[in-house]
Amino acid sequence: MNRLSRTLGFLAVLAAFAGAETIEERVKALEEKLKVKEDTSGKTPEPGSPEAAVSNKIDVYFKNGLQAKSQDGNFEIKIGGRVLVHYREYFTNSQRISIDNFSIREVKLDLKGRIWKDFGFRVEINGSGSAAFVVDDAYVSFERWSLLKVKVGQFKAPFSIEQTTSTLFIDMPERGPSDRLVPGYELGAMVYGEVFEKILEYNFMIANGTLKAAENNSDKDFYARLQLRPFAKTGIDFIKGVHAGCSVNWGKRGLARGVLPYTYSPPSSQTVFVARGPRADQVRFDRDRFRFCVELAWLAGPVGLKAEYIKTRDTYRFSGAPDGAGHSNHEAVFVTASWFITMEEKNWDRPNVKKPIFSGSGAFGALELVARYSRFNVPGDLARDEVTSKLTSAQHVDEMAACINWYPNANVRLSVMYAYLEYNGRRNNPLVIAGKRIDHEDVLIVRMQIDF
Q1: With 0-12 CB in 10 A as exposed, 13-18 as middle and 19+ as buried, what is 250?
Q2: What percent of the chain has pLDDT over 70?
Q3: What is the predicted pLDDT for the residue at 375?
């Protein structure tokens, strides 16, 4: 009996060892299968395939707006917005050129993103105090290569360093008088890219040439812009922010009879400084227009310098004289200097505030000082041909402005701007406001802004 028990026990031990070996083999086989499956699933799905759409996880976060992005980077979307409120006060002038007032400078909602990395879109609507919202940006783009990109829709034309800077990030609450000579949002198509990364950038655009208005002729406007930053990749702070550029625009205008070629009022004061002449109702700017712009900038640490020169040449004619044409040459220039006294680095867009307010002991935000000189020349040809009034219009406008910008954080801005404008004409005190003649004015502008 004992012998039988020992035999059965020995067989049981052998069976146990055999079973353990079988389990180990099975575990090993299972691990190999899982490894094969991981290798297979780890392959990047082809863009546009159902596997790519299903397998992606979405990260949602807030960074200068509400953003969502797939982990593989194929899909990206951002929702943002802004509110800009201005207070404008006219003083030192007993005639009160305009009433002191609060106004909505901008109210915008912005949606932009990418699909399959290479295809982009943007839709931006603007309230700006009007009863109805209007579309500013509305475009689609293809951005696979840095050398060659394509954009189609409505967006800012590639012209002028100041106009192509977002209103959020311009140095002062309002642009200078020279801004009246440049385009804004145009409807068309553009090819653009970087010939050398961060160093040489180009833009070529064909557009309706009527800004946001409906097209009024079959001719199109052409834009070209080159921007050079020769030291951008040197890593030398003192020179890496050197910037030079030029823009040109050529097209055929289709303005109705009696419409003057530009808006003759500085953005800061909004005072009209050109009066219509006896033949203004007979003139028509429906011929060629050429515009040229040279831009220079230097950003070094907390300091920034920007300058721009703009010249336009517009052809016009009078009713009853289809073959006779005149030419008017407008000119404008501005120079801006800025300094972050809290020593933040001067950027082209959003400031990098070192110590946002309430972030710690002594945290105040960022403080910037800005000064600007601008001049706008009205061509004498218009006065000679009696398109503009000789005695109640300015021949040139000089603006001297100073501003202090306070950024409690990168998304909030409070600005106080003072502008002194001098109007020079054929006679003293060329402008007539409320029956009184003036040759200058002072205006104070306060901006309160928040964006996300």
Answers
A1: middle
A2: 85
A3: 98
- Beta-carbon neighbour count of residue 46 at 10 Å? 9
DSSP assignment of 381-443: HHHHTTSB-SSSS-SEEEEEEEEEEEEEETTEEEEEEEEEEEEE-SSSS-EEETTEEESEEEE
Q: Are 299 and 348 in contact (CB under 8 A)?
A: yes
Please state the pTM of the whole predicted model: 0.84
| Residues listed for the chain | 452
The lowest-confidence range among 21-30, 146-155, 276-285 is: 21-30
- Alpha-carbon distance of 14 to 110, in angstroms, equals 75
Query: Which two three-digit tokens encode residue 352?
Result: 């990098």
Count helices and strands (H / E) in the chain. 3, 21
Cα–Cα distance measured from residue 179 to residue 270, given in angstroms and rounded to the nearest whole number? 12
pLDDT band at 334 (very low <50, low <70, confident <90, very high): very high
Bridge partner residues of 196 (DSSP): 200
Residues β-bridged to residue 203: 192, 225
Pairing of strands 66-70, 242-252: unpaired
Q: What distance in Å separates the CA atoms of residue 88 and residue 274, rounded to the nearest whole number? A: 22
3-class secondary structure, 122: strand
Q: Which helix (H) or strand (E) holds 138?
A: strand 134-142
| pLDDT tens, position by position, 263-305 | 999 999 999 999 999 999 999 998 999 999 999 999 999 999 9
- Rounded to whole angstroms, the Cα distance separating 229 from 210 reads 31
Q: What is the pLDDT of residues 166-176, one digit of tens each?
A: 999 999 999 99
Q: Which domains does the chain have, with CATH numbers?
A: 80-451 (2.40.160.10)
Looking from the CA of 181 toward its CB, the CA atoms found within 13 Å total 33
